[in-house]
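> run fold N-acetylmuramoyl-L-alanine amidase
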Amino acid sequence: MKKVSIVSLLMMLLIPMTAHADWAHVVHPGESYYSIASQYGVNTHQLQSMNNDWSSYLSVGERVQVPVTLNSYEKDLLARLVEAEAKGESYAGKVAVATVVLNRVESNIFPDTLYNVVYDGRQFSPVLNGTINQPAGAESKQAVEEALDYQGYDNGSLYFYNPDKAESAYLASREVTVVIGNEINVK
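> ok
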């Protein structure tokens, strides 16, 4: 029994679970897109794009959607998922996979942390077959960085699949957002 308690404690310490309410910032007096972007370490243009707002005026109490930010553990986890899930895909395909995962973190129909999205049931085969535990290559790590920078500029993809490898009537019925090589991203 003691070992279980120690293991549980270690897992809580080793696996950071960043709590994200809904990736929104409530505007306070005197704040601008620039000041909010600076606070979160993101580009002002990216923040405005995410909110589809090109004005410079914000109202006190307004909710501004902010990009997902990841700590080093979460970046590594996402890079390992990308490496395993998009093996054999182009660099653009790897960015697209990372983008889908980040969109899921922001979506209210999926869990609100990266860890919980990645380990949500049977969503990703690398989690099920253990290949997510293999280290990520430089290209997958760079794809994660690009996906983080790309937030707000994509088409809101929440799923990806390769119709040559998997059939899904559900995914085939969804709105296509982008096609990259053999991979189709959908909303």
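The two ends are 45 Å apart (CA to CA).
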